[in-house]
Amino acid sequence: MFLRRNRRQKNGQQYEYWTLVESHRTERGPRQRVVATLGKLPGLDEEERAGWEEIARLLDGDGAPAEPTPPGDLFGSPAAPPSLPPPQWAQVDLSRVRVERLRQFGQVYLALALWRRLGLHDFFFAHLRRGREEIDWATVAAILCIGRFCAQASELALSERWYGQTALDDLLGVGVEAVYDNRLYRGLDALLPLRQALFGHLKERYESLFGPALRVPVV
Hints:
Blueprint: E1 2-10, E2 13-26, E3 29-39, H1 46-59, H2 72-75, H3 106-117, H4 120-127, H5 137-150, H6 155-162, H7 168-172, H8 181-191, H9 195-210
Helix pairs in contact: 3-5, 4-5, 5-8, 6-8
C-alpha cells in the first residue's frame, strides 16, 4: 500500500487530498484500488507517519513485526525511525460493538455553563442553609433550573425519566438514584424564600453583562 497525492481544480482553485491505495493482481494484470480517502493532510510528524505505516501493514494482513518498521516506504521517501515506540493496535469485533445508555449532553452542558456564568451556584451556595444533606441545596437548585430550561417538565418527570437520560450525573457528580421527586420538592421549598434576593442578583448580573442602560425592573 502507499499514499497517493491527488489534485483537482474547482472554481479556479486547486485542492489537494490524499488516498490510501492498494495494488493487486487481476486477470487483466495489476490494478490499483483506493482503500480509504484520507482528506487533506497538511503535515505529518514522525508519530503520524508511523501510525499510517502500521495501518497499511495491518490492512495487508501482516502479523506484528519483530522490529519497528521505518515509515519511509509508504510515503515514497526515506525517513528516520520514530523516536517514540510504535503504536499498539487492538483488534475489535465490530459485530459485537453496541451503544449503551445513550444520553443527552449538549443541552444540559450549555444550560450548566449559563448557570455558572450567571453566578447562580455561588448565589445559592451563599444563601441556602447547609446541614447534613447528601446533596447541597445549591446543586438541587441547579438540577431544578436546568430541568425547567431543557425539559419543561414536572419534578416527578424530571426525577423519573429526564435526569437519567442526560449527562448531568457526570457533570454535577450526582447519581441518578439520588435525584427523586421528594428531594426536588423540598428544593423548591428552600428556594421560595429567596425569590426577591434572586431577582436582585439576576438584575445585577444582567446590568453587568449588557450595561446599565438596559435596566430590568424588579417586581
